[in-house]
Design brief:
Strand content: 15-25%
Structural class: alpha/beta
Largest sheet: 7 strands, mixed
Distance between the termini: 27 Å
Shape: globular
């Protein structure tokens, strides 16, 4: 995983959890996790959760999706502390481990995990090729890489609207195209690669989020953060919706398998 300059402080964590649900730092809550994992069986599997954030997904991978054990990793201390607290709250300390990792190769042995999962986190990793190689290395033969991420419709120079959005977001996103993701996964050795565009779903969801921020709940968000923070967030969401509507910002689900032999 790559360097991340502590973007997710406590105030930001609380803001995102108020928007998306306890322990969730990305859209859709557990319903979107169900959509990502549709058709996949986590029962009795050892799972790595890349970018565990505030722990909501990590907990749900055990509680709802019946993973035997989940190791959640993140590069920031704050989210790791929050994840550990949430796992403890749900009495899952023996089946969940949270580990803060340094940027770079994963600190795990070859063929250690049955499934590698990530939700809207590896957008922070710019080198998709190296990431794919590392995930391939730590998966057992036949293992699965199942994830969602924020993609851009093309590689190369972003549009002016996308540049404006990325500047407002200020989260060091390394967005890549579906073509680049597929090529990176294939080059790493994965088979059965599947990518699914979720742009239309998020176009609706992002508007709901903006309504939350700018409507009757606005004062609640302002009490949690500040008037200035929410004004800035509204500007960010407005800019984001513009590039979602053009299709340049295109969240995807994807899955890939490591061959058995």
């Amino acid at each position: 995983m790559e360097e991340n300059n502590q973007h997710y402080d406590l105030a930001h964590l609380k803001f995102l959890e108020m928007l998306w649900g306890e322990g969730y730092l990305s859209p859709g809550g557990v319903d979107e996790v169900r959509e990502i994992l549709k058709g996949f069986n986590l029962n009795d599997k050892k799972v790595l959760d890349i970018g565990c954030g505030a722990g909501g997904i990590t907990v749900d991978l055990v509680k709802e999706f019946k993973a035997r054990f989940v190791l959640g990793i993140d590069v920031e201390k704050g989210p790791c502390i929050r994840s550990e607290a949430l796992a403890s709250k749900h009495g899952l300390g023996e089946r969940i481990e949270i580990q803060q990792v340094k940027p770079g190769p994963f600190p795990f042995e070859n063929e250690e995990f049955d499934i590698v999962f990530s939700k809207d986190s590896i957008v922070h990793v710019h080198d998709k090729e190296k990431l794919s190689e590392e995930v391939f290395r730590i998966l057992k033969p036949g293992g699965l890489f199942v994830a969602s991420d924020w993609l851009t419709s093309h590689d190369g120079e972003p549009s002016e609207d996308m540049k404006k959005y990325l500047k407002l977001e200020d989260l060091d996103f390394g967005m890549a195209s579906p073509d680049r993701y597929e090529a990176a996964l294939r080059s790493a050795g994965f088979i059965n690669i599947n990518l699914r565009n979720r742009n239309k779903w998020y176009a609706k969801e992002a508007r709901r989020e903006l309504d939350d921020l700018s409507g009757i709940k606005r004062s609640d968000y302002e009490k949690l953060t500040s008037e200035e923070y929410i004004e800035y967030s509204i500007a960010t969401w407005t800019a984001m919706i513009k590039v979602i509507d053009t299709g340049e910002h295109c969240p995807h689900h994807f899955s890939a398998q490591k061959p058995i032999n």
